[in-house]
Amino acid sequence: MTQACGPAAGSVSVQAWLGDCGLPRADALALLRDLAGLSHASVLAHPEGLLAGDTLQALRRAAERVRAGEPLAYVLGWREFWGLRLRVGPQVLVPRPETELLVEFALGRLGARQEADVLDLGTGSGAIAIALAHERAHARVQAVDASADALALARDNARRLLPPTRAGGALRWHLGDWMGALPNPDERFDLILSNPPYVAEHDEHLQALRFEPLLALVGARACDDGLGDIRELVRQAAPRLRAGAWLALEHGHDQAAAVRALLEGAGLLDAHSLRDLAGIERVSAARAPGHAGPSPHARA
Ligand code: GLN
What we know:
alpha/beta; Rossmann fold; two-stranded antiparallel sheet; 11 strands; 34% helix; 19% strand; binds glutamine
């Protein structure tokens, strides 16, 4: 006879699993929500509820991955960015909350303007491009990435998250190296944004980031100060801005002054940096000389 009380063999209570899984509570609750279908409210209301069978197995495997240092977003398969649920996987960087600063900046520059040509360089999961297309239905958004696998995921995210009838049309995706990926070498933009690779080749943080793609962190131009790709990107992108148009880049915590100098060195004006929620200068931006006029494609 089995005991009259206590969990059945092979099962554990939600409370016991939370206590034993070895994860921060928020991570454990996320796994219970996604893998066992248990909301936070139901965990609080029924801590004695039992976990068993395939669900318990899946929870144990997932907890093991998170304990080994894999980002929770890869284990869950998604991460929220700008209120959008993006699919993510090891082919793309996990979108970070501080990157929302770039989206905020971009929306501020576009103001009430609906039509604009916007470019996202190094789009990864498509986070920045999709957030902008979501906020500005008429914007013509293009995005570049050096990884075909990343672009496939970004396309899939756009298909799921944006209405097929978007006024600005479908996003356009280009595979290749920065501006070289674009089919038309004369095309100019009203806004160019990028969260490029900027981690130095020997940065000790790379160990903690080991599950994420090196191409997205260190880039194709690995170097000691982490600025190899940013240097190239600024050089290539600055001449492709329309008059008065802005280029804005995310960068590392100690790179703001160097990035402002690169932007100014490329002939751009009003270089300045924005602080993230932790007070770190995280995004730097500058604009092309002249005044922004109506986009040549704008219709009356
Ligand atoms: N923000 C990331 C990190 O240091 C790096 C992202 C990037 O290189 N673009 O954790």
